[in-house]
Design a protein that fits this description.
The chain is α/β, with parallel strands linked by helices. The chain has eleven helices and 14 strands. The strands form three sheets. A six-stranded mixed β-sheet has the order 2-1-3-6-5-4, with helices on both faces. A six-stranded parallel β-sheet has the order 8-11-7-12-13-14, covered by helices on one side. A two-stranded antiparallel ribbon has the order 9-10.
């Protein structure tokens, strides 16, 4: 199952308050084997929400779209109004169930206007703006979510047959991108983090972003001759490993690469992809720069941590640049599924 999370908050969109609900939902989904391929924070503006939800649903990239925030009765609480304009069919049972469960905790739940519905092959669900409320409301309806998504994807099973997130719906690993200005040592840190995670028994995938032309094959080798002859895809395989050289007109988006090549790993770590929607760990070295990529002129809401040899003032967890174990701990706790003993 591929998910996207849209946080609605005027203050968070301006960088005045960190988003805690989006990351809480992302972690909850990851523990159930669901990959959040994209997340974004936008203001509580109805037209902006409509455009964003339509774009995500019509892209065909996301099975599940969660919104968090803007479900109440304040003048700027317009998420249900926007969602109602986007969905082609509403599913009243989701909103009814969330309100019924929340009423057990607070009478204020009766003023929630959250709705859920379908657009194309995407299931869209409104959730409250608080981290606790968002997770609790998602838990309340989760038993029906994998089944609903499977039906939208064309599953022919009887409605009485239970479906889990890992069965009829495709499961993809989480991905985290290490970003930095050149010369900061991000490859060195990433290498050490991979070693740490492998020691703990995790299966790791890695994608290196290269903005320029590169070659991994060499003239004179048979594989190079075959590629030079015009092969669009060339694979060389041995008992220990496999390599592929594939021609394309443009670099595929990162979610497509993960979907195609990394279904057999627990997590994908990328180097680069600064402009992607992936969660980012920025690697910072004070002698290289006094500013951060993700907290400079642009406030990158996908930044989840910083590893630095200094003490920059940041609104996300800060780790020592040389403490790969602590960075691995963070990735394991935040993005990897909980292991069942």
């Amino acid at each position: 199952m591929k998910a996207a999370i849209l946080t609605l908050s005027d203050r968070s969109s301006r960088g005045e308050r960190p988003d805690s609900s989006g990351p809480a939902l992302e972690k909850w989904l990851a523990e159930r084997g669901v990959a959040t391929l994209y997340s974004e924070i936008i203001p509580d503006d109805e037209e902006t929400i409509v455009v964003k939800l339509m774009g995500w649903a019509d892209s065909g990239k996301f099975d599940l779209i969660l919104t968090t925030g803007g479900t109440g009765v304040s003048p700027r609480d317009v998420t249900p109004d926007a969602t109602g304009r986007v969905v082609e069919r509403e599913i009243p049972g989701f909103g009814e169930t969330m309100r019924a469960e929340s009423m057990k905790k607070t009478p204020n739940a009766m003023i929630s206007r959250a709705i859920a519905g379908i657009r194309g092959k995407s299931l869209i669900i409104n959730l409250p703006g608080s981290p606790k409320g968002a997770v609790e409301n998602l838990e309340a309806v989760w038993r029906a979510v994998p089944h609903a998504v499977a039906k939208l994807q064309g599953d022919q099973e009887e409605c009485g047959s239970p479906v889990t997130a890992g069965q009829s719906v495709k499961k993809l690993p989480m991905a985290v991108s290490f970003v930095a200005k050149s010369g900061t040592g991000k490859t060195t840190l990433l290498e050490k983090v991979i070693v740490e995670l492998k020691k703990r028994g995790w299966r790791i995938g890695v994608v290196k972003h290269d903005a320029h032309r590169f070659d991994i094959d060499h003239p004179g080798k048979d594989s190079h001759r075959l590629t030079a002859a015009g092969a669009d895809t060339m694979v060389i395989s041995s008992p220990e490993k496999l390599a592929m050289v594939k021609r394309h007109d443009s670099s595929p988006p990162i979610d497509e690469l993960i979907d195609t090549y990394f279904k057999d790993v627990d997590i994908v770590l990328t180097e680069g992809f600064k402009k992607s929607g992936l969660p980012k760990i920025e690697v910072h070295r004070s002698e290289r720069s006094s500013t951060l990529l993700c907290r400079g002129e642009e406030h990158d809401r996908t930044l989840v941590a910083v590893a630095s040899d200094a003490h920059p003032q940041v609104d996300v967890p800060l780790f020592d640049l040389n403490d790969a174990s602590a960075v691995a701990d963070f990735i394991e706790e935040r993005f990897l599924p909980v292991r069942v003993a």
